Amino acid sequence: MGINFKDAVGLHGDALQLRAERTRILAANIANENTPGFQAQDMDFAATLAATQAADSGELTLDGDSEPLYRVPFHPSRDGNTVEIGVEQAAFSQNASDFQTSLTFVNMAIKGIAKAINGQ
């Protein structure tokens, strides 16, 4: 009997992949803070995770749009850049914290599996 790790870690495996993608998007925003005309992006994490989970379970979803969304700036700049460094840093920090939380759940699940295998 094999172990299905996807079932063992639940949605946290998908959450880690999506958090990593969101980290890439937010890092690109921060890196392009001074690029004229750069449009800051983000993703709707909850909707993307729900679509990923539905696709994994074989359900039909009408909202499969996981394309990055463009941010609307609080204070637009003259050069057309929509990156606001404070907003991006806060989003990056929150995403890192959420990534760590999902990673902790995955680690606990794997430790539980290891204990079961060892008969503890």
Structure notes:
With about 120 residues, the protein is mainly α. The chain has one domain (about 10-120). Helix content is about 60%, strand content about 5%.
Succession of helices and strands: HHEHEH
Assembly type of the chains comes to: single chain
Mean pLDDT: 86
Give the strand tally. Answer: 2
Number of domains: 1
Measured by DSSP, the beta-strand proportion falls in: under 5%
Short structural summary:
With 120 residues, the chain is mainly alpha-helical.
Give the SSE layout.
Blueprint: H1 5-9, H2 12-31, E1 41-42, H3 45-57, E2 69-70, H4 85-118
Antiparallel strand pairs: 1-2
Helix pairs in contact: 2-3, 2-4
Question: What attributes characterize this protein structure?
Answer:
120 residues, mainly alpha, two-stranded antiparallel sheet, 2 strands, 3% strand, elongated
